[in-house]
Design brief:
This is Multiprotein-bridging factor 1 family protein. By secondary structure, the chain is an all-alpha fold. The chain has helices at 3-14, 16-42, 46-53, 57-65, 72-81. 69% of the residues lie in helices and 0% in strands.
Length: 95
């Protein structure tokens, strides 16, 4: 386990609020990475991708930067517009 992982685990044990905020930020980052990877696989600029998914380019930028908490509806719209299947799964939480 890295030093940062140890720190996060320790802070999470000490503060439920920290654990919750960390989890929320981590999820937003995962979504950001997935959307960016999809756009890269399609070989599109943010502007082109935004036009394809019928969203403002600023929305795509906020999603990719992890600054936007993206709804399942928006992710479904992105999946539909790009001929992708959106998958949501539950995994055991790690301590």
């Amino acid at each position: 386990m890295s030093k940062i992982d140890e720190y996060i685990a320790k802070r999470s044990q000490l503060s439920a609020n920290f654990a919750q905020k960390y989890q929320e930020e981590n999820q937003q980052l995962q979504v950001a990475v997935e959307v960016r990877n999809l756009r890269d696989r399609l070989g599109m600029s943010q502007r082109e991708f935004a036009q394809l998914v019928k969203k403002p380019q600023s929305t795509i930028a906020r999603i990719e930067s992890g600054k936007m908490n993206v709804s399942i509806n928006v992710l479904n719209e992105i999946a539909d517009a790009t001929n992708q299947k959106l998958t949501v799964k539950f995994e055991p939480a790690t301590a």
